[in-house]
Design a protein that fits this description.
CATH superfamily of the largest domain: Response regulator
Distance between the termini: 54 Å
Number of domains: 2
CATH architecture of the largest domain: 3-Layer(aba) Sandwich
Shape: elongated
Strand content: 5-15%
Order of helices and strands: EHEHEHEHEHEHHHHH
Low-confidence stretches: 201-221
Radius of gyration: 19 Å
Structural class: alpha/beta
Mean pLDDT: 81
CATH topology of the largest domain: Rossmann fold
Largest sheet: 6 strands, parallel
CATH class of the largest domain: Alpha Beta
Strand order of the largest sheet: 2-1-3-4-5-6
Length: 221
């Protein structure tokens, strides 16, 4: 089964590609991050399925990409993967011809199984999670920890994060360790996946400096 996976977060998209190919010998996947790359990959690879995140950076509406792929490449099933909290958006995508909506809460093996069924002609639509009804997370991140998690999800490395936050690398590592402990993960990839799956990133404000942070600010050049 050939897939094109389009996710705005390159790290998550590539991780999902590796996980699917590792867990299923029948899957071959290509990972892209933009609308243009997605359409080009579908055109060149002629995949069985295009797995698409509607939140694409250079389009005001990911539905435009759904429309183009469904109209130009009818042999490729289009599946929306998470990233939708509005049933109206999903209804529009259905009218344009998508054959599935799969929640990011699925495990990799469950996702692979659903994609095989969709490639065989089935339509699978998971319930759309509603942001307003989502319970509060069972942990509280400080403003600085929230910023660190947001930067991890954006794929920033340690040096870039420390430089842009204007703090010492040792201080940053302390924040990272605290974030991992609070959300129960052991790697940056797991942290990024957790943040995306829990839809936390939009709720994290840009934090003010605390007295502790001010004491650890690097001197300016």
């Amino acid at each position: 089964m050939r897939l094109v996976i389009c996710d705005v977060n390159r790290m998550l998209g590539e991780a999902l590609t590796v996980a699917l190919e590792t867990g299923d010998d029948e899957i071959r996947a290509a990972s892209v991050t933009t609308a243009a790359e997605c359409v080009a990959a579908v055109s060149s690879n002629q995949p069985d399925t295009c797995v698409l995140d509607l939140r694409l950076p250079e389009t005001a509406d990911g539905l435009r990409v759904v429309r183009e792929i469904c109209s130009r490449f009818p042999g490729t099933a289009v599946v929306v993967l998470g990233g939708v909290s509005d049933p109206g958006t999903l209804a529009k995508a259905k009218k344009l011809g998508i054959t599935g909506f799969l929640s990011k809460s699925r495990s990799v093996s469950e996702l692979a199984g659903a994609l095989h069924k969709i490639a065989a002609g089935q339509r699978i639509f998971d319930p759309v999670p509603r942001t307003a009804s989502r319970p509060a997370p069972p942990f509280v991140l400080t403003p600085r920890e929230a910023e660190v998690l947001r930067r991890i999800a954006d794929g920033q490395d340690t040096r870039q994060m420390a430089d842009e936050m204007n703090i010492a690398v040792s201080t940053l590592r302390t924040y990272i360790k605290s974030v991992f402990a609070k959300i129960g993960v052991h790697s940056r990839l797991e942290a990024a996946a957790f943040a995306s799956r829990a839809n936390l990133l939009g709720e994290m404000p840009s934090p003010p400096l605390s007295p502790h942070d001010q004491q650890n600010i690097l001197p300016s050049a």
